[in-house]
Amino acid sequence: QVQLVESGGGLVQAGGSLRLSCQASGRTFSSYTMGWFRLAPGKEREFVAAIGESGGRTNYADSVKGRFTISRDNAKNTMYLQMNNLKPEDTAVYYCAVGKTLYDYWGQGTQVTVSS
Fold first, then answer.
1. Confidence band (pLDDT; 50, 70, 90) for 1?
2. What is the pLDDT of residues 77-106, one digit of tens each?
3. Three-class SS string for the chain?
4. 79 with 71: CB under 8 angstroms?
5. Are 94 and 83 in contact (CB under 8 A)?
6. Which of 34, 104, 107, 108 could cross-link with 4 by S-S, CB 3.0 to 4.6 Å?
7. Residues 77, 67: Cα–Cα separation, whole Å
8. Average pLDDT over residues 13-26
9. What is the mean pLDDT of the chain?
10. Contacts from 59-67 at CB under 8 Å and sequence distance 24+?
């Protein structure tokens, strides 16, 4: 059974940092694209960042570019999101997702709250 488990969320002041992790199990995802999305109250789900199979190709939403860094460790079947200089508007539930052409598998999410 495929499972994605996010961790690392929490409460942080504006300007602070958090590092999210997404641990995958049930299958090896080294040949899959992995991504992060977020859902804030009253808003639609938003793409945050994605990383290709080898980790050499990354893509970011304009709103997080220069502040967030996505990475992966295929040996550990784990993806990360380093979030620096956090802003109150980054407050959301963050989800990891994995897929080939579409994101087929999703985690349950981890809450990130940034206070001003």
1. confident
2. 999 999 999 999 999 999 999 998 889 999
3. CCEEEEECCEEEECCCCEEEEEEEECCCCCCCEEEEEEECCCCCCEEEEEECCCCCCEEECCCCCCCEEEEEECCCCEEEEEECCCCHHHCEEEEEEEECCCEEEECCCEEEEEEC
4. yes
5. no
6. 107
7. 24
8. 97
9. 95
10. 63/89, 64/90
- 66: Cβ contacts below 8 Å, ≥ 6 apart: none
Q: Give the pair of three-digit tokens for residue 25.
A: 């199990």
Q: Are 23 and 91 spatial neighbours (Cβ–Cβ below 8 Å)?
A: no
Tell me how far apart the alpha carbons of residues 17 and 59 are, in angstroms, rounded to a whole number: 20
The residue whose two tokens read 């709250």 is: 113
CA distance 73 to 1: 20
* Contact present, 27 and 2 (Cβ < 8 Å): yes
Q: Are 95 and 38 in contact (CB under 8 A)?
A: yes
- The total of other beta-carbon atoms located within 10 Å of residue 87's CB is 14
pLDDT score recorded for residue 54? 82
